[in-house]
Specification:
Elements (H helix, E strand, L loop, with lengths): L19 H20 L22 H7 L13 H4 L1 E6 L4 E5 L11 H11 L7 H14 L20 H10 L1
Antiparallel strand pairs: 1-2
Helix pairs in contact: 1-5
Length: 175
């Protein structure tokens, strides 16, 4: 008689229709969309970000310094451009891709790009996926490899792990 019996407490099966290289491409599309949105001065809700705080009476403020340097006086995370240049696809495999900021500090500075992004995001939530960013990535994924969905709706449950169930249910409701 066996002394122990194997008990399976959790089982996980993930089928991804995309390769790691394809996921890296999708993550790059998302990274470019986020970068463009931040540079245009929008937050994660696709609204204009809060204005920069003006200087105190008799002193120049950050918007004044940006204007004097030839930059737009909006909250767009650009002074030297280092932080947004460090926005990259960090890892990618068949199941997921991770985008983020490299841990690099400019010469002569103590804060890394990820720390600067963290503190800027505390002021105004700009780092994240907005509805427009999500729509751009889903459109690229569907155009790259169209997914076939039956009209009954029971097949949508299988696509929930990819976040496409809402997208496809919206298409079905519009038809």
């Amino acid at each position: 008689m066996p002394r122990f019996q194997t008990v399976v407490r959790r089982a996980r099966f993930v089928y991804s229709p995309y390769t790691a290289y394809e996921m890296q491409g999708f993550a790059q599309v998302l990274s470019d969309a986020i970068r463009a949105r931040i540079q245009s001065g929008q937050n994660i809700y696709d609204q204009a970000a809060a204005p920069l705080k003006p200087g105190k009476p008799g002193h120049l403020g950050y918007p004044d310094y940006k204007s004097a340097r030839g930059l737009q006086p909006i909250r767009d995370w650009t002074w030297s451009g280092h932080t947004l240049r460090c926005l990259k696809v960090l890892t990618a495999n068949e199941n997921r891709a991770v985008i983020g900021f490299l841990d690099e500090a400019m010469p002569g500075r103590r804060q890394t790009a990820s720390q600067i992004a963290f503190y800027n995001n505390q002021r105004e939530h700009q780092w994240g996926v907005s509805p427009r960013d999500r729509a751009a990535v889903v459109a690229v994924m569907v155009a790259y490899r169209p997914l076939v969905v039956a009209a009954s709706g029971t097949e949508l449950a299988g696509y929930r792990q990819y976040g496409a169930a809402v997208y496809f249910s919206g298409l079905r409701a519009a038809a």
